[in-house]
Amino acid sequence: MPLDLYCHIVAPFCRSVILLADALEVELNFIEVNVLKKEQFKPEFIAMNPQHCIPTLVDGDVVVWESNAILIYLAEKYGKVSKRFYPTDIAERAKVNRILFFQLGTLHRALSTYYYPILAGLGEGKPEDFRKIQDAVGVMDKLLDGNKWLAGEDLSIADFSVVISVASLEGVIKFDLTVYKNVYRWYQQCKKEFRKFEELTQEANDKSQEMIAALRQYKLEEINSAKEPCCSAPPGAKTPPKPPCPDSS
To answer: What are the coiled-coil residue ranges (predicted)?
Structure first.
C-alpha cells in the first residue's frame, strides 16, 4: 500500500521527502495541496494536521508532519541494512540530528529571510541577510572538510534534508557554490546519488513561476485589504482610540 503524501512539488521540503522515499523504495500516493488557495485550511485537513502544513505523511493510522520528522520516520521504519540513512549508534545519530536542526534553524531560515521580499515582490533582499546565507554555507563547507557526506562517510537523511535548500540557493538566488569547494563537490555528488533530483527540480522550476505570480497577487490583495478601514463610522463620529499593545503596560 502506498503512503499518502500531502504536498506540492514547488515546496522544497516536500521534495526532500520524495527523494528519501524513492531511495528507500517506498511508494507514495501524492495528494496536491495548494497553500495559496488555502487548501490546507480545509476542515478535513486540519482534522488530520492541526498545524495545517505540508508535507504531511499518512501511513495507516500514523500521521507525521514537519519534513525532518517525516525523514526520521521513513528511515526508522523503512530503512534497510544497506540503506538505513539514520544511524542506530547514538553518537552518530547526534551528528545527523545536529545537521537537521542546522538545516531548519540556520540555513533555511537565512535563505527564506533573504529571499521572501523578492519572492513576494516587496523589494530586494538585504545585504546583511545575504551574509547570513554565506555564513551558513561556510559552516557547511567546514563540516564537509574531510567528510564524504554531511554527517560523515555515510549518506544520511541529513543530506536529503539539506540538498533541497542548497538547490534553492543555486536555482533561485543564483548563489555561487563554486566558492565553497567542499559544498560544491558534495552538491554534485548528491545530484548523481539521488535518482529523481534533476526531474523533481525541473518540475518545481516549471511550476514555480505560476506560484510566484499567484503569491504576489495574494500579497497585493493582503496589503490592499490592510489599508481598508475595518469598520465604517457615521459622519461626524469620533474615531475610537486604538487599544494598547498587549505587552505595553
So the answer is: 187-217
ω into 55 cis (within 30 of 0): yes
Helix (H) or strand (E) holding 173: none
CA distance 242 to 234: 18
Residue 116 and residue 59 in one domain: no
Buried b (16+ CB within 10 A) or exposed e, 116-148: eeebbeeeebeeebbebbeebbeebbebbeeee
pLDDT (average), residues 38-53: 95
CA–CA gap between residue 137 and residue 132 (Å, rounded) = 9
- Give me the pLDDT at residue 232, please: 43
Q: What is the largest CA-CA distance in the chain?
A: 77
pLDDT, averaged across the chain = 87
